[in-house]
């Protein structure tokens, strides 16, 4: 069994996320409280109650990374060690902290700044995003050509063979979405975001974020973390450049999953509040073993399933 752990990206946040772990798992509670202190944010208040700030980019980003890292701490003694780590966009920061390429303080400091700067870019350059399901590549390409006549639009996320995300100006994304619907694509769903992530509309955020990355210290790490931008493991020497490019270039999650499979990974365990990445892996690798952990109950179920499948999982 070769295992990769997956770390959720923005959009997976849910009110109440982490509450059961916080109440029942000492390792999670200690890690979550430590993250709260570093961030200067009351994470239990933000995540466990109906706090509207959780729906904003500035707060959702640090909250999700803290949650993912705390879950990773909670499962260490229960589950097999990782051969690789992979996050979707924002989730790469949780993976890099878990993999040792970023210290906890450094990683959370970067994410807090990233969320704030991206929120500001959304106000300066408003945009839109839409998820497209079960469209052919030529349909997507044609839609972007049509959409470009109205405004910026491009593929921001290559999530699976069945799912991509369009991003750009509201006019561009709307035009491209309308084209797809008119040409038989039944599911084109607007996302509840105010900005065009992974496009040049995030350039102001990337420029402002660059000094934070330049001043950061990166390590080689103990577990390889795969980059959505390069479809290869991050390296300490190029980590800052790659994370900066990530903000304005498309992500290639599906290609990363395929490459991990080619490297021998056969089991994927998602850490996060919702099985978002698990579904994408299933669409990309139908025969892979896939698990998702959001709370003590799903952790216990995963441990039990792995023990049945492989005996002792440590």
UniProtKB/TrEMBL annotation:
Keywords: Acyltransferase, Transferase
Top-rank lineage group of the source organism: Bacteria
Catalytic reactions on record: holo-[ACP] + malonyl-CoA = malonyl-[ACP] + CoA
SMART domains for the chain: PKS_AT
Keyword Lipid metabolism attached: no
Domain Malonyl-CoA:ACP transacylase (MAT): 6-306
Pfam families according to UniProt: Acyl_transf_1
Enzyme class: transferase
Keyword Cytoplasm: no
Gene3D superfamilies associated with the record: Malonyl-CoA ACP transacylase, ACP-binding, Malonyl-Coenzyme A Acyl Carrier Protein, domain 2
Name of the protein in question: Malonyl CoA-acyl carrier protein transacylase
Lineage: Bacteria, Bacillati, Bacillota, Bacilli, Lactobacillales
Gene: fabD
């Amino acid at each position: 069994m070769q295992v990769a752990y997956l770390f959720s990206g923005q959009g997976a946040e849910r009110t109440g996320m982490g509450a059961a772990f916080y109440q029942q798992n000492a390792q999670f509670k200690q890690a979550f409280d430590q993250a709260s202190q570093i961030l200067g944010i009351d994470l239990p208040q933000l995540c466990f109650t109906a706090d509207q700030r959780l729906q904003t980019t500035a707060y959702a980003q640090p909250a999700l990374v803290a949650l993912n890292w705390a879950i990773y701490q909670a499962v260490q003694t229960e589950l097999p060690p990782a051969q690789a780590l992979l996050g979707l966009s924002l989730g790469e920061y949780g993976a890099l902290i878990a993999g040792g390429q970023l210290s906890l303080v450094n990683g959370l400091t970067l994410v807090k700044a990233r969320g704030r700067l991206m929120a500001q870019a959304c106000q300066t350059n408003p945009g839109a995003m839409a998820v497209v399901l079960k469209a052919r590549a030529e349909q997507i390409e044609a839609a972007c050509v049509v959409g470009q006549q109205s405004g910026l639009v491009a593929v921001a996320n290559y999530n699976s063979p069945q799912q991509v995300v369009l991003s750009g100006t509201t006019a561009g994304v709307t035009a491209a979405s309308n084209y797809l619907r008119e040409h038989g694509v039944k599911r084109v769903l607007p996302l509840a975001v105010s900005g065009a992530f992974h496009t040049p509309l995030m350039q102001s955020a990337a420029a402002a974020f660059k000094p934070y990355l330049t001043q950061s210290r990166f390590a080689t790490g103990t577990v390889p973390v795969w980059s959505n931008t390069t479809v290869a493991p991050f390296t300490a020497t190029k980590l800052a450049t790659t994370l900066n490019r990530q903000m304005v270039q498309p992500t290639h999650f599906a290609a990363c999953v395929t490459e991990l499979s080619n490297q021998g990974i056969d089991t994927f365990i998602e850490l996060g509040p919702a099985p978002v990445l698990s579904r994408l892996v299933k669409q990309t690798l139908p025969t892979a073993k896939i698990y998702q952990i959001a709370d003590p109950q799903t952790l216990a179920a995963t441990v039990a399933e792995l023990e049945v499948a492989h005996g002792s999982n440590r």
